[in-house]
């Protein structure tokens, strides 16, 4: 029986508590949050769980093997580092940390202590995204030209990160998973309308080595909630609508074909192919994967290094925003080229 603790009972923490608590070989031993009202509510739902407003209580509890961190991003690094230094496995909600340097330190601590470090890129564990990966890898869509993603809603506004850092990690993790590579460059433009200095709308463009592109539109200011990704291939096109009740994936047998040869410009005509649409059948395993990774000592699908890749892209997007949308190249993105802060034990 694995005993773990959850730090943070705000927006996403209760979901993690519920999912881990439902696993037969897992015990959520403790919950920590600064808000006593939230703790009281969680105690009503899970009377057997210990509650505390002090994170140190979780660190010092020898029976706790792993800590799940679902707090504001600014707290991720310090809390995860203390947990790893205490010899505990760590699950961190996205994004992994506030900088790639912080990510690098956490990765090294996990490796040195032989601890599992996993990032909450939850969509990588959904049957829908697994099915999309299967379809892309099968070649059914042909050569992938580009991916376009929209993640829009009205709120929830964050105080310590902009909308790209808040919403785009989901899309980034999926795109990197489907393409199997990191981008060459990142461009990002955006505006802050509500809170000065915190962009509430952004448009990010990723360019990959083979000319493929991906665009990500993020917004806290859209009247309608949208969670949609379009994958355009040379043979077919796929639309993933995460908000659809049924048929979240639709494949369209549509494409544009250029003629093989022509003699004059007047003879040149593109051929537009319109075929059928079908929705493949698909059958949350993220929490299970974390426990399995600990048990089998294997690298999680959303490992610390995968989490750092996402943070590196987000860092580049912030720099591009500052430089009015200029392209930021990631040629030095490899973790081995990053000099991390000196590893000094944290106390307190």
Protein traits:
348 residues, disordered C terminus, alpha/beta, 9-stranded mixed β-sheet, 6-stranded parallel β-sheet, 9 helices, globular, Dihydrodipicolinate Reductase, domain 2
Please name the CATH topology of the domain at 124-278.
Dihydrodipicolinate Reductase, domain 2
Output mean pLDDT: 89
User: Fraction of residues in helices?
Assistant: 25-40%
Instruction: Tell me the fraction of residues in β-strands, as a range.
Output: 25-35%
CATH architecture of the domain at 124-278: 2-Layer Sandwich
Shape: globular
Question: Tally of extended strands?
Answer: 15
Name of the CATH superfamily of the domain at 124-278: Dihydrodipicolinate Reductase, domain 2
Strand line-up across the major sheet? 14-13-12-11-7-10-9-8-15
Q: Tell me the Rg in angstroms.
A: 22 Å
Largest sheet: 9 strands, mixed
Task: Extract low-pLDDT stretches.
Answer: 333-348
What structural category arises from helix and sheet content? alpha/beta
CATH class annotation of the domain at 124-278: Alpha Beta
- Count of helical regions: 9
- Summarize the helix and strand pattern as letters: EHEHEHEHEHEHEHEEEEEEEHHE
Q: Could you give the distance between the termini?
A: 29 Å
């Amino acid at each position: 029986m694995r005993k773990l603790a959850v730090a943070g009972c705000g927006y996403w923490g209760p979901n993690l508590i519920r999912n881990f608590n439902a696993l037969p070989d897992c015990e959520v031993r403790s919950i920590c949050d600064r808000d006593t009202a939230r703790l009281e509510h969680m105690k009503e739902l899970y009377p057997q769980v210990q509650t505390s407003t002090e994170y140190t209580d979780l660190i010092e509890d020898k029976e706790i093997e792993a800590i799940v961190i679902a707090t504001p991003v600014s707290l991720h690094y310090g809390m995860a580092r203390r947990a790893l230094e205490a010899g505990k496995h760590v699950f961190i909600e996205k994004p992994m940390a506030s900088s790639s340097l912080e990510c690098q330190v956490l990765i090294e601590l996990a490796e040195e202590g032989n601890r599992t470090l996993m990032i909450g890129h939850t969509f990588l564990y959904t049957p829908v995204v697994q099915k999309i990966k299967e379809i892309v890898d099968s070649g059914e869509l042909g050569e992938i030209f580009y991916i376009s993603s929209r993640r829009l809603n009205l709120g929830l506004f964050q105080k310590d990160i902009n909308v790209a850092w808040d919403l785009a990690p989901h899309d980034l993790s999926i795109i990197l998973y489907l393409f199997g590579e990191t981008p060459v460059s990142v461009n990002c433009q955006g505006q802050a309308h509500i809170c000065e200095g915190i962009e509430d709308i952004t448009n990010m463009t990723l360019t990959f080595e083979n000319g493929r592109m991906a665009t990500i539109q993020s917004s806290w200011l859209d009247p309608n909630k949208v969670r949609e990704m379009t994958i355009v291939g040379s043979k077919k096109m796929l639309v993933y609508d995460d908000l659809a009740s049924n048929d979240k994936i639709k494949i369209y047998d549509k494409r544009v074909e250029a003629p093989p040869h022509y003699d004059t410009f007047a003879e040149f005509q593109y051929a537009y192919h319109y075929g059928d649409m079908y929705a493949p059948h698909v059958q949350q395993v993220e929490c299970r994967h974390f426990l399995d990774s600990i048990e089998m000592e294997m690298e999680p699908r959303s490992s610390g290094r995968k989490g750092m890749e996402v943070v590196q892209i987000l860092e580049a997007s912030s720099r591009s925003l500052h430089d009015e949308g200029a392209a930021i190249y990631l040629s030095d993105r490899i973790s081995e080229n990053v000099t991390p802060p000196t590893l000094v034990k944290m106390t307190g």
